[in-house]
Design a protein that fits this description.
The protein contains 16 helices and 28 strands. The protein is an alpha+beta fold. It has four domains: about 30 residues, no CATH class; about 400 residues, Alkaline Phosphatase, subunit A, CATH 3.40.720.10; about 90 residues, Arylsulfatase, C-terminal domain (2-Layer Sandwich), CATH 3.30.1120.10; about 170 residues, Sandwich (Jelly Rolls). Strands 1, 2, 3, 4, 5, 6, 7, 8, 9, 10 and 11 form an eleven-stranded mixed sheet that branches. A six-stranded antiparallel sheet has the order 18-28-19-24-25-26, with no helix packed on it. A five-stranded antiparallel sheet has the order 23-22-21-20-27, with no helix packed on it. Strand 5 and strand 6 form a beta hairpin. The protein starts with about 40 loop residues before the first strand and ends with a helix.
C-alpha cells in the first residue's frame, strides 16, 4: 500500500493498495470561507464628484444611496487616483496604480514598469483572492482594465474579467459606452445589445446582476458571493430615460454658483466637512453664472438636468439591486456593501459643454449657436452630452480643480460602507484619511479572508493598502493610512499626517520627444496645505513653512521611487509616439465576413485622410429587393456606412454627427451575384471624392468635403459587416438594418501612409476616461 500525489503533484491523502479492499479514497477539501463571512457588493460609480450624492450635500435625489449611508458609514476623507483605470486597479489589487503598471489608463500604456497598462499575476485581484477562499465571484458593468487593442474577438482574454478571477461578467470594455445602444460583452464573448423599447444599460446591468445571484442561490443557498457592480454612470454620455430628466426641469436655473453655495451650506450642516472648512473660490477660467446670456444659461442648465436625471435613475437601479439582496434573498444583514466613485467630477465638456465628444477629437467642437439649436437632443440617443465645467466645479464642492488632477477636486470622492450584521454604526461620518488601495485590505479583514503569499502558483507582492475596518465602528480610532502619494500625467501630490503638498503640471507638448520646453519638473511650484484644518486647500502655506514643504516633497520622491512612478512624463502622447508593439502585421487589405463581432477602431483599417476601397461580394435571392448594411463603422455620433436601400447602393460619411455626406445611386441591383463598391479618393487634405460602383460600373459620385480627422467612434461602436450596431450612421434606416442578401465577404483596401494626428488621438483616449 502507498500514498501518492494527486494530478497536480500535491500530496494525496488517501491510500492505494493492490485492490479496493486495501485502498482508501480521498478528495482534497474544497475552499471554505471563514464562518460568518459576508457577501460583498462593491459598487463603483463613474465621474461622480464629492458633492453630487444627496448624503454628501447634493439636492440631486439619490434616496437609495442615502438609505445605504443611513444604515452605515460615510467616509468624508476618502481618496482615489484622479482617473478611472488607475483607481479600479487599486480597488482590484490593494496596491498603488503605478505599482501594478496602471499609472495611466490602460490605453495610454508606455514602455516603463509603472505604465504598462497590464496588471501582472503577481498582483492578485479581489475575485482571485476571494474566489480561492470559496466565494462566488461576479462582475457586471464597466471594466477598463484591458487595453483597447485587446478587446476584440481575436485577442487574448488574460486581462478580461473572467481571466482575472470572475466566474461571470456582463458589461463593457473601455471608458464609456452608449447607454441606449451599448457595445456589450458577456464572459469572453461580444453580445448584441438587447433591442427593446425603452432600453437603458443601467437597467440591463441590474437585470444581469440579479440573474447571476439568483442562479447562484438556485444551486447553493449558503455560498457567499462577491459582486463587482460598476455602472457607466455618470460618465458621459449623460443618457437617461426622458422622464427622469424631466424631473429636473428648471431645477438648476439659478446656476452653478448658487448651487455650489447651497451645497456647501448643507455639507457643513450635516457635519460632512471639518469645522472651519471654507468654500474654495471659483477659478477665473470658470465664468460666473450671472455673466452668461440667458440663452447660454438655459443650455447649461439643461446639461445639468440630464446629468441629474442620469444619476437619480442610476440610484433607483442600485436600490433595485440592493433590495433584491435584502428582500428576495433575505441577505441584507449578511452583505457588506461598499459604494464609491472612481475620481472627481469630469471637466471634459469644456467651458460650454459638449453635445458630442468626438467633435473635440476632430477639431470641430459645437459652438454656442449649435448647442442652443440642438438643446432638445441632450440626454437622448443622438447626443453624447457632457456638462460644462462650471457644473464640474460645483460637483466637487468645496474643493478646487477636478478629474485627472491631484488637488482634492480630482482625488477626493464619496465612499459609503454598510454591513448591518457586523458594523453597529448607523448614519455616521468618518473623517480619517483613506484611499482606494485600502478597500481590499478592509474587505479582507471584515470577511476574515487572508491574502495568500502564493496565488494560483504565483508569488504575490504585498498589499500596499491599510484596512480601515477599525474606525468604521470606532470614530476615535486613528487612521492607519498616514502617507499617500498621488501622480497623474505629471501633476503630483503627497499626503502625510494631515498635511499635503501638491503641484499642478500642465500637459506637455504633443509631438516632441524632447523635454517639456515650458517648466522643467524640478522647477514646478509646490503648494502646501494643512488639510487637517484646511480641508479644501484654500490657504497655501508654502512660503510660511518651507522646511515642512521640503520634507513632503522629499517624501514624494521616496514614494515615487518605491512605487514605480518614474520617469515623470506629462506628455500624454508619449504612449502614441512609442507604442507597444502589436502582434498584428501591417497590411493594406482587410476581409470581413457577415455578422461577426464589431472590430474595435484601434485594430480596424485606418481610413482617415487615405484613399480606400470598400468592396462587397453579394448574391441577391430571386424576388428580393436588396436592403441592409454591407459594412459600417461608428454610429449616429460619427462614422460611415455602405448599404443597400430599396434595391440601390448608397454610401454615407457621417462627420462627427454634425453633417452627412451622401453618395447615392439610382441604379438598381438585380437578382444574382454582384460586386458593390465604394471608392474614396483622398486629396490629402481630409477632402476627397466618393464613388459608388456596381459590377465595375460607376453608378454614383459625390464630393466628401471633409473626412473624419481622428476617430469615428467614442462609445465602442466598431466596424461591422452585414449589420450596424447603432444608433445608425445614416438617417435612412434604423440599426441594425441587417442585410437581406448573402454577403460572401467585404474587402477593405487602403493605400498610402496611415494618418496619425497624435493630438487628436490623445483627446480621443482621454475623453473616454
Amino acid at each position: 500500500m502507498e500514498r501518492a500525489a494527486d494530478g497536480n503533484g500535491e500530496s494525496w491523502g488517501g491510500v492505494i493498495g493492490d485492490t479496493w479492499r486495501e485502498s482508501t479514497p480521498w478528495w482534497p477539501p474544497e475552499p471554505t470561507p471563514p464562518d460568518g463571512a459576508p457577501n460583498v457588493v462593491l459598487i463603483v460609480l463613474d465621474d461622480v464628484g464629492y458633492a453630487q450624492l444627496g448624503c454628501y450635500g447634493s439636492d440631486i435625489a439619490t434616496p437609495e444611496i442615502d438609505r445605504l449611508a443611513a444604515g452605515g458609514v460615510r467616509l468624508a476623507n476618502f481618496h482615489t487616483t484622479a482617473l478611472c483605470s488607475p483607481t479600479r486597479a487599486c480597488l482590484m489589487t490593494g496596491r498603488n496604480h503605478h505599482s501594478v503598471g496602471m499609472g495611466r489608463v490602460s490605453d495610454l500604456a508606455m514602455g516603463f514598469p509603472g505604465y504598462t497598462g497590464r496588471i501582472g499575476r503577481e498582483h492578485g485581484f479581489t475575485p482571485e483572492i476571494l474566489g480561492a477562499a470559496g466565494y462566488a465571484t461576479y462582475a457586471v458593468g464597466k471594466w477598463h482594465l484591458t487595453p483597447e487593442d485587446e478587446t476584440n474577438m481575436a485577442a487574448p482574454r488574460r486581462s478580461w474579467p473572467v481571466g482575472r478571477g470572475f466566474q461571470r461578467w456582463y458589461g463593457f470594455h473601455g471608458g464609456e459606452t452608449h447607454q441606449f445602444v451599448p457595445t456589450l460583452y458577456q464572459d469572453n464573448q461580444w453580445v448584441e445589445a438587447p433591442a427593446a423599447d425603452g432600453y437603458h444599460l443601467t437597467v440591463d446591468l441590474v437585470d444581469h446582476a440579479v440573474r447571476y445571484l439568483a442562479d447562484l442561490r438556485a444551486v447553493d443557498a449558503a455560498q457567499p458571493f462577491f459582486l463587482y457592480f460598476a455602472t457607466g454612470a455618470c460618465h458621459s454620455p449623460h443618457h437617461a430615460p426622458p422622464e427622469w430628466i424631466e424631473r429636473y426641469a428648471g431645477h438648476f436655473d439659478a446656476g452653478w454658483d448658487d448651487w455650489r453655495e447651497r451645497t456647501f451650506a448643507r455639507q457643513c450642516e450635516i457635519g460632512l466637512l471639518p469645522p472651519g472648512t471654507e468654500l474654495s473660490p471659483r477659478p477665473p477660467w470658470v465664468p460666473a453664472w450671472e455673466e452668461l446670456p440667458p440663452e447660454e444659461q438655459r443650455v447649461a442648465a439643461r446639461f445639468m438636468e440630464c446629468f441629474a436625471g442620469y444619476l437619480s435613475h442610476t440610484d433607483d437601479q442600485i436600490g433595485r439591486l440592493l433590495r433584491f439582496v435584502e428582500d428576495e434573498l433575505d441577505e441584507g444583514d449578511d452583505t457588506l456593501v461598499v459604494l464609491l466613485s472612481d475620481n472627481g467630477a469630469s471637466a471634459e465638456g469644456g467651458v460650454l459643454g459638449s453635445i458630442n465628444d468626438v467633435r473635440l477629437w476632430n477639431a470641430m467642437p459645437a459652438g454656442r449657436h449649435e448647442l442652443q439649436a440642438r438643446i432638445g437632443e441632450l440626454g437622448g440617443p443622438t447626443a453624447h452630452n457632457n456638462y460644462p465645467w462650471g457644473w464640474t466645479m460645483a460637483g466637487n464642492t468645496p474643493f478646487k480643480r477636478w478629474k485627472r488632477e491631484v488637488h482634492e477636486g480630482g482625488v477626493a470622492d464619496p465612499c459609503v460602507v454598510r454591513w448591518p450584521r457586523r458594523l453597529t454604526t448607523r448614519g455616521e461620518i468618518r473623517h480619517q484619511f483613506a484611499h482606494a488601495v485600502d478597500v481590499l485590505p478592509t474587505v479582507l479583514e471584515l470577511t476574515g479572508v487572508e491574502a495568500s503569499a502564493v496565488l494560483d502558483g504565483v508569488a504575490q507582492t504585498p498589499l500596499e493598502g491599510t484596512s480601515f475596518a477599525a474606525w468604521l465602528d470606532d470614530a476615535t480610532a486613528p487612521a492607519a493610512h498616514v502617507t499617500q502619494y498621488f501622480e497623474m500625467l505629471g501633476s503630483r501630490a503627497v499626503y502625510h499626517d494631515g498635511w499635503k503638498a501638491v503641484t499642478f503640471k500642465p500637459l506637455g507638448r504633443m509631438y516632441s520627444d524632447d523635454d517639456d520646453p515650458e517648466v522643467p519638473f524640478d522647477q514646478d511650484r509646490w503648494e502646501l496645505y494643512h488639510v487637517a484644518t484646511d480641508f479644501s486647500e484654500c490657504h497655501d502655506l508654502a512660503e510660511q513653512e518651507p522646511e515642512r514643504l521640503d520634507d513632503l516633497v522629499r517624501r514624494w520622491w521616496e514614494e515615487a521611487r518605491r512605487h514605480r512612478v518614474l520617469p515623470l512624463d506629462n506628455r500624454p502622447l508619449a504612449a502614441l509616439m512609442h507604442p507597444r508593439p502589436s502582434p498584428a502585421r501591417e497590411r493594406t487589405t482587410y476581409v470581413l465576413r457577415p455578422m461577426g463581432a464589431p472590430v474595435p477602431e484601434t485594430v480596424a483599417p485606418k481610413l482617415h485622410n487615405r484613399s480606400h476601397v470598400v468592396h462587397a461580394e453579394i448574391e441577391v435571392p430571386v424576388g428580393v429587393v436588396p436592403n441592409g448594411v454591407l459594412a459600417a463603422q461608428g454610429s449616429v455620433l460619427g462614422g460611415w456606412t455602405l448599404y443597400l436601400l430599396d434595391g440601390r447602393p448608397h454610401y454615407v460619411h457621417n462627420l462627427a454627427g454634425k453633417e452627412r455626406h451622401r453618395v447615392p445611386s439610382d441604379v438598381a441591383v438585380s437578382d444574382g451575384a454582384h460586386h458593390v463598391g465604394l471608392e474614396f479618393v483622398s486629396n490629402g487634405d481630409f477632402t476627397g471624392t466618393g464613388r459608388l460602383y456596381l459590377d465595375g460600373d460607376l453608378v454614383g459620385e459625390a464630393p466628401i468635403p471633409r473626412f473624419t480627422l481622428a476617430r469615428f467612434s467614442i462609445t465602442g461602436a466598431g466596424l461591422t459587416c452585414g449589420y450596424e450596431g447603432g444608433p445608425a450612421v445614416s438617417d435612412d434606416y434604423e440599426a441594425p438594418f441587417r442585410a437581406n442578401v448573402t454577403i460572401r465577404r467585404v474587402t477593405i483596401d487602403v493605400s498610402g501612409t496611415p494618418y496619425l494626428d497624435v493630438e487628436a488621438e490623445f483627446a480621443a483616449i482621454m475623453a473616454e476616461q
